[in-house]
Hints:
By secondary structure, the chain is mainly alpha-helical. The protein has helices spanning 2-28, 34-39, 45-55, 61-74, 99-134, 139-152, 156-170, 186-220, 223-230, 235-263, 267-273, 278-288, 291-319, and strands spanning 76-77, 83-84, 91-92, 97-98.
Amino acid sequence: MSRFLVRRIVGALVILLIISVITFLLFYVAPRDPARVACGKVCTPDTLRLVRHNLGIDDPLPVQYWHWLKAVFVGRSYGGFGNCPAPCLGFSFTNKEPVLDTILDRFPTTVSLSVGSAVVFVVFGVGTGMIAAVKQGKTLDKVASSASLICSSLQIYIVGVVAMYYLADQWHILSRPKDVPITQDFGGWFQGLLLPWFVLALIFTANYTRMTRSQMVESMSEDYVRTARAKGLSRRTVFFRFAWRGAMGPIVTIFGLDLGVLIGGAIITEQTFGLHGIGSLSVKAVRDNDLPMLLGVILVAAAAIVVFNIIVDAVYALLDPRVRLA
Length: 326
């Protein structure tokens, strides 16, 4: 098991290195000059040259990338702009602070939104899918399948606005979304994210319902499940010990990818509800042409996806010991 995880971690580090190279090249070969953003509105040619020198963007591109990569481990000084301690993902010249500090300030909101909605859509989605599989062909199965098809066609930026208008503004059933640190006010944090959780989970629940149902129906028709029934095991034992475990592999895979993407930034959801997380930070970086910030956000999002892929591999190995030999 340890060798299996070591191979996955080494592979993940290589992937992150490749992503950082590609992303760095895409942004720093772009026609827009980051030095002009840092220089401000009134910028003479001499000042612009000094800014380029302080930023290190007057060096050849491979040298720039080496300085950026080295700063991740040892930090970096940006002349008169400020210092960026390790781990340094760059320095934002729009808000005049290290990129990682801003990302970490926004990260708790994104994590709260992602994890909370994930709990909702996994519980309801997998649970509904399992019930639909047990009641295959009956009224409950048809209702669940039809509802999941409709919900999966909805869009967050429409459902979110409608839900805020009726549930929060008109009927006062839920509070309007707001950023409240969980360490300061747990009740306010919970109430402020309850509406985004359910709206975001609505779309994912539909997908997990259909996926769980199809996987469970397929798993219950396997030979080993029929053999377990023939041996006289109870229906509950056959369902949970054999059919359910066999169907969880693809669901775990999709869940890991979905959660990684959400933690990397639920852009539409955060913009719809006015939450200040990683997703809204990336939109602001695009508007401000803040290339260092955008590069940092993309790398954090890529790291989240890679990390959750490793977790999925580990869970796979626990569910199926044959995976450890791959």
